[in-house]
Amino acid sequence: MRFSTGVGCCALVLMVVGCKKSTPPPPAAAPAPTAAPAPVDATRAAPAPRPAGPAPTPLPPVDWAALRASEAACADCHPDQVDAWRASHMGQSFRPLAELPAAIRAQAATKVHARTGFTYTYADGTVTEVAGPGHSVARPIAFVFGSGAHAHTNAWATDDQLLQTPLSWYSSKQGWDFSPGYALATHPGLFRAVPSGCVTCHADPVPTKPGSRVHFERLPDGPFGCARCHGDGRAHATARLDGRDAPIHSPDGDPLPRADDACAFCHYPGVARVLRAGRGWGDYLPGRPLHEVVAIFDRLRPTEGFGATDHFARLAQSACAQQTPQMTCATCHAPHPSEPRDRSAACRDCHGEGGHAKMHACAGPAGEDCVGCHMDAGATRDIPHVSATDHFIRVEPTGRTPKNNDSPLVWVVRPEVEPADPDHQVLLGRAYAEAWRSDGQPRDLERALRWLTAGLGALPDRVDGWVELAAVRRLSGDAAGERQAAERAFALAPGDRRVALAAGAARLAGGDAAGGLAALERAAAVGSDAEVETLRARALSELGRLPAAVAAAEAATRAQPSSGEAWFGLGVLRLEAGDVDGAATALTAATVWQPADLRAWLFLGRVESLRGRWKASHDAFAEATRRAGADQRGAALARLGAMRALVELGRMAEARQLGQALLAEGMPLPGLPTLMARVHLAAGELPRAREAIDAAVRFAPDDAEAWAVRAEVLEAQGDGAAAGAARTRAKALRGPGAAPPR
Fold first, then answer.
1. More reliable by pLDDT, 16 or 642
2. Distance, CA of 144 to CA of 99 (rounded, Å)
3. DSSP H or E segment with residue 410
4. DSSP assigned state of 139
5. Pairwise CA distance, residues 96 & 156, whole Å
């Protein structure tokens, strides 16, 4: 069966990124075991790798821009097909916003995100994200992904990126709602970059910058065209215009099992799909075997339920497909239909009166729809509000369970659970890492580590393997291993953006700020964003280049105004630079855009105390206390900050209660004895105040505030000489010209 060579694109023929991947069975052409093998133990040693074979043969480059330009001639000879294609759903897979129906463009919407409380609006072609008063980001939609038959999602554009909006339009609702993947509290808002693999299934491939999956040399300008299915037709068009004949590729002219490769490219997402070493998404041209460009992996044990683009995998489970090798996508579907098509005609060929496998009477009459009974229809598990047809043909479709399983992954062209070929091992490791990112199953992360380690032992020059291994080791908490893998990748491909970013982050985490900055500069040269600039700011700060660090942090907030991490980094650096008011502005933004970030609330409380805004300081520390969760140290520091603010506000009874609770917990906290001394002093409890302040100076003998409070206590006890000595010590610790702490 042809499915053995199918390779899929992301689940984005209807939508863009964030969709959960499907878990179809191994391809029908693969020899099926009589019983599923026992689950693979990820801790076992991998098989001894075979000697490394030759590097994959370079593929001739595809000039997609030239192919697109040449397609103007197609309509001269094939006007009906071209017009039908343009009117089809696939022919409207990518387009400017202006080409949407006016009624949809004019339909305003407001949605409140349940997990964050943020408000999202669509109006007049613009999507706006509002986190709070004075904190909003608005971006005009530039392009639309998807025909709208089920849904379409939207993207705004920079010079070199497409970024998805949080709101999409759903035909089932005839209105707007959240895009797939936006249910989490940590969703990326307006700044989810659309990767090249997704763009390629909606538009002709556009070249990416070195090592980047989301930065493009140029942006696409329309849906994919004739070359997506027919390959390079320039020689054919030239010959026909000259009155000669020349062949052109047609998918149904490919030998089985490659006849459906062009369809499989976008309609077989699998559990994971990874580019082969040295390949790009634009390297696939109809006529080339898909597996030479992309490796697609499925679970050994199928999972019930289906995704929006799981057509290939689900059909592969059907007896109809398994027993009819000549059955291709075109058997039921016409890519550029000239008239309505009876989708059940192919069923009657086998199951009708004259068929060889007649089943029951209803299959015979023309016009009877077989799909309604034998192909399930319902909600897809990866895109909300979308109902699609399940291509698993069955006598009686049963219920669907969307839960994935963690059975082993197999490469559909070589379904080996325990591969010995090192290239296969690297690809399998990358696939497990991709599956883990999609479904978060721990065994997949363990398997990724196992297979990447095994494959790289025989193929030490595989950049794709090293950079993936660095990511897996980071997720596993192995900082030293992460650094080692990232350095191997960087030595092989220093100009690759993903590699440079991984190396820069690993070096910075290991204390090598200079090395980290050098790698991050390379990443920024390919494509800068908030992540790169935030890391650059940290490296510059550690190198003592504070003004440059502040500038980089400010660039990060400009690149992504909704990044709480970027605002937090800027706030800390401004505080370090002595810009207390600027730090307060940045840290306030951090708490608005990333309200669960305990660090931001703690720093904001501290900054507000430096500004003498004690009510604001108390409120920030109180919020930090609520956000601390299981972080006992963080909670204690937050309560200590709140106690200090209460003391400054004169709310001594509340401060006493909080201080006593902290003392009872027994966690050593700098400043707590001093604050308790002030509470006792305000209450006239001089012996207890003296006891507390003596403990404070023993605990922190270089704390100027403790010595200043000790001076007050001694003065109240009538010991003027000792009080004067304490004031002198406090002044010396503060340094010349320093203001009193309160």
1. 642
2. 9
3. strand 409-411
4. E
5. 10
Predicted model pTM: 0.84
Report the b/e string of 368-386 with b at 16+ CB within 10 A: bebbeebbbeebbbbbbbb
Look at residue 384 in the predicted model and tell me its pLDDT: 60
Count of all residues that appear for the chain in the document? 742
* C-alpha span between 731 and 705 (Å, rounded): 9
Give me 212's structure tokens.
């980047």
Query: What are 542-571's pLDDT values in tens digits?
Result: 999 999 999 999 999 999 999 999 999 999
Closest CA to 122 of 136, 141, 135, 103: 141
Cα(10)–Cα(68) distance, integer angstroms: 23
How far is Cα 702 from Cα 174, in angstroms, rounded to an integer?
A: 67
C-alpha Rg value of the chain to the nearest Å? 32
* Cis peptide upstream of residue 31 (ω within 30 degrees of 0): no
Note whether 264 and 330 are within 8 A (CB).
no
In 3D space, the residue among 591, 58, 13 whose CA is nearest the CA of residue 311 turns out to be 13
**Alpha-carbon separation of residue 542 from 468, 501, 555, 575, 666 (angstroms):** 27, 18, 18, 15, 34
Under a CB-based contact definition with an 8 Å cutoff, are residues 133 and 122 in contact?
no
Helix segments in 594-631, DSSP class H:
598-610, 614-627
259 DSSP 8-state letter? T
Element (H, E) at 709: helix 704-716
Gap between the Cα atoms of 228 and 204, Å rounded? 7
- Torsion on CA atoms 327, 329, 331, 332, rounded to nearest 10: 130
| 47 φ/ψ angles, rounded to the nearest 5 degrees | -60, 150
Closest CA to 48 of 468, 469, 419: 419
Is 594:565 a contact under the CB 8 Å cutoff? yes
CA distance 207 to 189: 26
Q: Is the CB of residue 470 less than 8 Å from the CB of residue 493?
A: no
- What CA–CA distance (Å, rounded) separates 514 from 213? 26
The residues near 402 (Cβ < 8 Å, ≥ 6 apart) are: 304, 305, 381
Which has more pLDDT, 224 or 585?
A: 585
DSSP string, 149-217: SSEEEEEEE-SS-EEE-SEEEETTTTEEEEPTT--STT--TT-EEPPHHHHTTTB---PBPTT-SS-BS
pLDDT bin (cut points 50, 70, 90) of residue 673 is very high
d(CA 33, CA 587): 59
Spell out the SS3 assignment of 203-253.
Answer: ECCCCECCCCCCCECCCCCCECCCHHHHCCCHHHHHHHHCCCCCCCCCHHH
Structure-block tokens of residue 547: 């003004």
Element spanning 127, H or E: strand 126-132
For the chain, the straight-line distance linking the first and the last C-alpha, in angstroms and rounded, comes to 80
